[in-house]
Amino acid sequence: MIDPAAILAHDFGQPVQAYSARDAILYALGVGLGGDPVDSGELAFLDERALSVLPTFAVTLCTPGMWIRDPALGVDFGKLVHSAQSAEFLAPLPPEGRVRGEAQVISLTDRGEGKGAVLVLERRIFDAESGALYCRLHQTLLLRGDGGFGGPPTPRIEVLELEGKPDLAARFATSPRAALIYRLSGDWNPLHLDPAIAAKAGFDRPILQGLASYGIAGVAISRAMGRDPALVARLGCRFSGVVLPGNELEFRIWLGDDHTVRFTAHVGDRKVLDAGEIEWRTT
Question: Which residues are known to be catalytic?
């Protein structure tokens, strides 16, 4: 049985992390950039001499790791699913620097016995020296084995259904090595590496990290819209299906106002990302 008080009071500390241009480049490779070695738009995120940094790189910094596995919290880790991710990117990351993280569980709600619980973790990434806020993100975890603990009910979230034919579509082919490269940015869950562990979880082979698909969305949709991926200001989506390394993602895009679009992503007939929204800065 989970311990809600312990989860809500969990002390994440304020970790500090230094990163280099190499780390930012490795992240860009992990979300599939570099497939075309003469594409100047992609090389902007791979050339340390004049490096642009993908905003979504921030979600890999100062991570609390596998904190949720602490036995004192009582979470059934084997049934945990990362169900949604959103982030605001408030300032561009420099090519190298030192950052400080803060984290807090901001909600833990109960879907009922046999239906699971929903945990939302907020993280904030600051410049360690100036205190400037680079990123504020919300990570939603579905604790499928931990419902019925008597907590506040999970509110019903109305998801806007995207109607009509998409305005644009974009395809992005992932590498069979994508999960192996992305994990070098800090996601050490063996589900993305070990075939035996993937099989125990019901998959034919290791699956792609949800946050890799999230980063790919920022790149693919920006390029389809003729936008610079470095100018993504807000990105959110739900993870509604499994992506395997080597799959091709098809993004379906509906135009909103001048700065925002909505999207879904599919692998064949399967929807793998939904409730997607992305927004860009003007400069």
Answer: 187, 192
